[in-house]
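Annex B, item 7. Sequence and structure tokens for protein A, then protein B.
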Amino acid sequence: MKNLLVIGGSFFLGRVFVETLAQNNDYRIYVVNRGNRPLNINGVVEIESDRNDITTLKALLPKLSWHGVIDFCAYTPQDISNLFLVLPPKNIKHYFFISTVSVYAPTKALPIKEGSPTLTGPQPELGPAADYGYQKLLAEKTMAMHCKHNLIPFTCLRPGIIYGKYNYAPRESYFFDLIRKGQLAVIPDNDLALFQFVSVWDAARIIVLCMGNPDTYNKTFNLNAPELVSYGRLIEILECVTDRAIPKQSMSVIEIDQNRIPLPFPLDSHLIYSCDLIRQVLGFTYMSLIDGMQRTYDWYCKEVETSK
């Protein structure tokens, strides 16, 4: 049996990944998190600890050889370094770091590829999120340094906009809530801003396919489905999956900002990333956005019904 150590794993992508592999008898899964959201999944061992509580983690982690360490919640270089103080490097067969496309520097050279320029510092224009992308990039570099020094194969995954089951961010649910309440959907009058999605199920499947795969060792991959989507196209898809006409109003970006309408996707710039490398290496085919959104909406409806 192969032992997997999951850091995080009680929310969104990590949770779907754990649920997916918990059905496979070839794996024994250990999940480290703070215990705020117990998984309660049969066969999954939950270890309650903050990842940076080195003393507690050393005491609680079993002395095992890890087929894979999948790190969903490292946000700073210190998060990475602290974990390597706890884990004996000789016990790690493959390290996964879940990063983000937010590490890339702004550019007009699209699509953005894995080798495109990355940030050189924080982004003050993003306000509270100013440090997010840069700190994730520094965490990437720290992870690669530790892995290379200790001869541990690593795979770095940079997902774009993730949607699907357990999504706690108000992305697709922002529109689902409007639809359920029969409220007006505001969209930009300029429908040229294009962006991409990746379903949480595809992202989890890619991690599984990369595990122990030498073709993914010491490489970085973008995770984005190839479909280019605008707000107008997204509304068309949502009308299809919900079987409802969505009342909508077009506004300028200036008006949207002035009215503080919390639209979750880019308003006036493209976010387009190359998805070729991971597809070539794995022979991977992403699910269509309409299929993924249908699956997401069905889950959302069940959650709403359960909460009544």
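Protein B:
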Amino acid sequence: MPKESGMNEPGKSLSRRSLLKGAGAAAAGVSFASVLAACSSDGDTSTGGTGGSSDTTTASEGSGGGNGGEVSFGSNFSDTVPKEALQKSIDGYEFGDEVKVNTIERQAYQENINSYLQGNPDDVFSWFPGFRMRALADEGLATPVNDVWDILGDDVAPGIKATCSSISDSNQYLVPYYFYPWGVFYRKSVFEDRNYTVPETLDQWVSLADKMKSDGLTPIAFGAADGWPQMGTFDYINMRVNGYDFHQSLMIGEESWESSEVRETFKVWTDLLPLHQDGPTGRTWQEAAQSIFGDEPECGMYVLNTLGMGQQAAESDQEGALEDLDFFAFPEINPEHGRKAVEAPIDGFMLSKDQADNQAAKDLLAYLGQPEAQDLYISADPSNLGTHDGTDTSVYNALQQKAVEIIKTSENVSQFLDRDSKPAFVSEVVIPQFGEFLSNPGNIDSILKNMEAQKVEIFSN
């Protein structure tokens, strides 16, 4: 499939238009299915591995829609806003009335995904890229979607494509839908009033934090009671110290938690802890976020994601809080790795096993990866950002615009610790041991020894 297409070569622009209800397909005289077929390549349908967990799923079984027929769609968009937003996107599809959406409660869906996919799953299902996608692909529970990616082409950032690709066979298994990056958030008015400069390096960040302390501000808000915000801080420090590749290898159990690299990460983290709010394990992430708002803010910055901070700005009593909110990329620590990686969880969709010939399901996936579908979703759920470069960013606020630019310029996109690693390792080891570190940062040797021993056991099963 050429990157540039002439009038007689079905290109990406024609393909996108042909998917809108009542537009393009008849006038152009070509179907989106034929475009996908023309772009497909040999070897795209191979899968590897077998097995899975023995969990019992409460999910409904798929209808097994075939080529040209009804497509069944397993969705974990169970909360009201995302559920309605997804339906709005589906309604905009030319064949939307042929898509049967089976919505499953989010937590139950995620806990029982393996047994759901080993049974009679829906044709298309919602999931996450990175480790969790790769685990399903390696178990033979998903079908490659390389031909759909031939349509998306270069209109999706390389870092996003990389995290939607398998390491074992280099195929793409997930079509991205939206994302919400992490950064260091602050209020523009506070920085302007106090003449603060946005830092680019760790030394500059520490200098800024020291200035904030002298001005009576706690530099960095911190709420770790929920168990997950501290993962974002660790991910960024580890990627900045050791690079994206090392971080990913650590997440999948190939590097030791007792290594000198990880020890350096915890040393940097330990040095930064005095710049954070005290007692983080007794504070929720929402409470921490609210500490940067108000006429007399308690804190100057907060490491979190656009989704959470956008919500908290809207809920604060600060007039114009969302317009006053800004963020910068997590500072450089090791010049060798710079700020090449960004933490930006992505949600998307996959094709279940044995669906290589299900053209109708591939058509739907291709539509969901295009800006028309993502624009419709975001119009109903503006807390997220479309992954396609062609999404209508003119309606985005300044925060969203900056998030898009950071993603575009990133070489790698991490998916957050609880998505990049085994769920059991995260829940049974990372959360309690990170909590221990925050309470007793001088106990690093014992913590890392414990984490490595449990990692070996969990990843060997």
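Comment on protein B: The chain has a mean pLDDT of 84.
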